[in-house]
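Note to self: the last two entries modelled the partners one at a time, which told us nothing about the interface. This time every component goes in together.
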Amino acid sequence: MKAAVLIQRWYRQYVARMEVRRRCTWTIFQSIEYAGEQDQIKLQNFFTYLMDHFTPTNSNQRDLISHIFTEDEVYKETELEKYFDHETIELPESYTGPHIDFPLTAAHAAALVEAFRHKQQLHARYVLQLLHETLKHLKLLPNINRVCTCFCEEITICGDLHGQLDDLLLIFYKNGLPSVEKPYIFNGDYVDRGKNSIEILLILFAFLLVYPNEVHMNRGNHEDYIVNLRYGFTKEVMQKYKMHGRKIHKLLQIVFSWMPLATVIDQKVLITHGGISDTTDLDIIAKVDRHKYVSVLRPPKKKKRHNMAEALSIRGGRTSEGDIQTTNMDSRPSLRRLSLTSTPCYSPGTRKRSPHDISRKVRRSVEEELEKCRRQVGFSEPYEDGKFSLSFSESDSESFEVCESDNAEWKQIVDILWSDPMHQEGCVPNAVRGGGCYYGPDVTEKVLSRHNIQLLIRSHECKQDGYEFCHNRKVLTIFSASNYYELGSNRGAYVKLGPDLIPHLVQYQVSRTTRKLTMKQRVSRVERSALRALREQLFSHKSDLISAFEKYDKNKTGRISLNDWATVVESVLHLGLPWRVLRSQLVQSAPEGLLEYHAWFDDLAIEQPTTEHVHQSLLETLYRNRSNLETIFRIIDSDNSGLVSFEEFCQTWKLLSSHLNMEISNEAISDLARSIDFNKDGSIDINEFLEAFRLVDKIHYTEREGSLLLTTPGALL
Amino acid sequence: MAEEKESAEAMISEIHKQITDAFDVFDHEFNKTVDVREVGTIIRSLSCCPSEGELHDLLAEIEEEEPTGYIRFEKFLPTMTKVLMERRYRPIPEDVLLQAFEVLDQEKKGHLEPEELTKYMSEEGEPFTQEEMEEMLSAAVDPDKNVILYKDYVGMMTVEDN
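The predicted structure of the combined assembly is written out below.
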């Protein structure tokens, strides 16, 4: 008896430790993901600031800025037809991919599914044709689809797919293809991150056209070209469709803007990608011109607005003081440009990672950064009122109308696409994401009952089991991309609703291994991946960490206590992770409880950097900001050629460095640019440059003649 | 004397931070409360190895007078600090664990049949749930011989734990 208890005791402790490891792994992935998204907001806000205040001092800068900030061209119908004409694109004799014809039939759609399952690619001609037909269909749809269960047994609702074709195929396998008897609602985020975003879109659009009454697609926050620049969809399109990628890309922008924003079933179930806020009003949403919001991250296009490039060239000669005077700094109730995070409210006493605190922290740090930018860009005088507020900015008062209702409308849309539910009551701006709110159970109660809705189905957040109820089961999160962070990290799920409107959930997980993994194996695999990501983060902050360690190591012994280690790491990385719990995974040995921190970094890194301190931190900064860099590169690379000129690279870097803490000399930048230009033709291949960072394991730092050289195995020198 | 006091304070401060970190992993609402069903996991993650009975007693100390289903950090911290300071519920050394298996192996075969282990674990002591049993078997049973070579099993489990 005693022996049994002993074994049971021991085993339960073992299980508990596994569970904690699993939890931590999840937290790591989420923290890093959110830190990346926060980065994105900062970048976005920085651009917004530049749009208002940057006065280029030379023609190069002016060109660069106008590249970035050219207004989205407004296409007239006839122009559209001409520009996206697929007829002129010839199918080569050698094409072995699927063929489609219009009007599209179920057979065509099924053929597409099969073709993509076999890794074929649809020719650009068909892609453009399909997108064009899809656009025609979408324009006929209202902002809020109204669906009824009376004509069918059950409606299937799917959440985020994020380019993971295997998950869509698995859903169709388990649940059947869309048809008259099998209606589907897809709740956004079809693209980015996974490698088959375009295939998923093409399949879904095909079914949308074949079964217009049974298949419905909501827009997600990733159906947005600005988000796509960063998270991979743009790149995928350009890589798969080299010649016509640009056209496809532009047409997609328009298609996304015409996607409906929500679906309502039987007037009782609301389905939308993110959720709600305390001001959500479906009647307002139903009436907006949704296609004005090509990107939900930018304020709506206005016809009266000057082309930004024009505005810049007009202002080219004015002094910065002149600009300041037109800036209106007092708090007006109406905003010309609502930044994504309006004044946050927060309650004291909440822990550091609560939505309230993050909101406040981000706002403060963004304001500090903007202050710095302002100084660097040349506005040396403080504003009259003293405080620069994130929410208010006004530069050319003539060309921009102050329009309160426009911004209220914009907020409605951002809220339904970007918000997340939270446990606490209230409604707080969602600074972690960059848009929308965190909404509490009271908000759900209020908004749902105002509209006589009994259930909100939303997606937007990855859930361990593929789904999660909250707010007294009034909110259901459904997430359909299994193994989202890593193989084994989570299941996917879809939900079926019959006329009784009771949700029936189906879970699944795409997995190549048929053998069942033990708990230990499942946890370890995902954990390894998370820890690797975490080690990258630690390594890319090496300089900051070392100087912080040195502050605690006053006697210069090269060692610090494990307790101090945890404190330092959190203070530098700001990831809100339980470092003491993670310690055993990150620190190999610490005799007598003291860590030799230099040696620790050598353990973390795959190889030893032998560069000087200055180059080391430049490289780290580049590495840490590779997502931002990529985003900016892709914006500059307006012809989507994948190449950026020397000059553009240097300008980009200068632009970015004013957004960061680093002062980088022109020389260092030029050196770096020269060494990256592998084939010495004066232009830099963006993809190669970024690929170098993705292959962290294989990066080799060497110092040659005082300048930095990046080599990857087999690269030409 | 002052030095001793200082190091005792430092130790307590370190213990507090450990407890806080472990607690935070399960504090999903960021309001310094955890679900009572997770408390066992938290305590075990702090290198304690209580039996279910001992856990139950501990919970009684930590819970509110009127159980709410949640445990507050203010009550958890002092109790847990005492537990750690007193080094209660220490983990089981490998040799003791091995002996426990040997006790179960009455015929002294050197291994256990899955049915034997299942019987003991599900019927004696503080019985496993079916899920716990399945999970244990999946890792413990040698796939070729279909028995539990407990010596190897214990060795494997304790190595990776540390």
